[in-house]
Amino acid sequence: MPHFRFAALDIGSLTVRLAVAERVGPERFRVLKHLREVTGLGQGLAQTGSLAPEAMARTFKAIEGLVQVIKAGGVEVYQAVATHAVRQAGNGQVFLDQLRDSLGLTVRVLAPEEEARLALKGVLSALAPEFLQAEAVAVFDVGGGSSEWALLRPGHEPRFASLPLGVLTLSQAHPLGDPPEPQRVKALKQELAGRLGKFYRQFIQPHLLGPSRLVGTAGAVTTLAALSLKMSKYDPNRVNNLIMTRGQVAALAEQLAGLPEAQRALLPGMEAAKAGVMVAGALIILTILEVFKQDLLVVIDAGLLEGVLELMAVGGGG
Q: 113-304: which CATH architecture?
């Protein structure tokens, strides 16, 4: 007898991702298939306040293909969610109407805190228990358009926050040149230090009473992990619970900033479509480590998509 199959679709500012899972027990499931495509839905959003027609067309085509995978894969229930780009865009509803009318796809637009909660749920599904043995654990998800944060402390409810710092929006707001110009890289790094420093002082520091730990998820972090492992084929099992040092992240940031995009795209572990945004991505991660005064970063592949699956599994698949 076949297991109940369900799926989650994440329409992000940079990437569209699908996970198909099957139930293997009460509130337990295994992921059968992961698919993703970099479409850059949020391209130009920071400058215009709207989703660009060509970005919508690329993303629609990718989603259309993923919906076909869902329908052909025996999936009984699926949930589609959208994040920063659709949330912020003045014409976000137009895009959602197109998906509904043409593909029959209803999309749930996540509020920032809801996105952070689901990302945390996904991270905790894969995080090794020993990494929770700290007075505070800060979990961050750096996406294409924004960064979501959760602060965990024993005996307290999690605290959530969202920052408008994403690899796509930063790359467009601060063009670095190709290859990147050192002065522009330095200027972006200084701006990140200022914005993340203010966030740390307001959101994190007042709640730290002892040793803390930093956990990161989503594309920028997992790409750095894949680069550090020189992966020819991406393997989430090797990425989950990988510990990266600040020195490793700094070396990768320096390497990426020293290469033109075409050469970055050829590095083992680099998804070619992300080569254009990964200088900004590496700088964000490095600055987070510096501002948080952390020498180690725990990398988790599981995040928002797995959080949606977890929610569906608990809720009976719907």
A: 2-Layer Sandwich (3.30)
